Structure formats: structure tokens, C-alpha cells
Amino acid sequence: MRITVFRRLMAEEFGAARAETLSVDHVLSGLGGRTIERALDEGVSPKEIWRQVCAEFDIPAERR
Prior knowledge:
Blueprint: H1 3-14, H2 16-25, E1 27-28, E2 34-35, H3 36-41, H4 46-56
Antiparallel strand pairs: 1-2
Helix pairs in contact: 1-2
């Protein structure tokens, strides 16, 4: 998954403003206590990050 696809999925799920805020401020335990932006900066794949976001926010399977 490309980062652009990941960001589109985030915006579709949460709205553009909230997606940006979550990416910068929300710490995900499934990412080792990192934010989305930090995980991306450290080379975690966008696909793995999306999986963790889906798990954390109980996103229905049809939107995963």
C-alpha cells in the first residue's frame, strides 16, 4: 500500500481534519506506542499501520 492510498483511506474513514490530527497525536499501542507519523517516518509499512488503525478503532471488515 502506498502512503497516498493510506492517507486517502484515513480521510475517508475519519474526515480530513480528524485523520491529520490522529496521525500526529494519537499513540497506537499496536505500533509500539508510536503515532502514525512517527511509525511512517521510521519505515513501518502503511499497510501495517492501516491494520493497526482498523484494530484500534474497530473499523468494519468491509472498509479494511
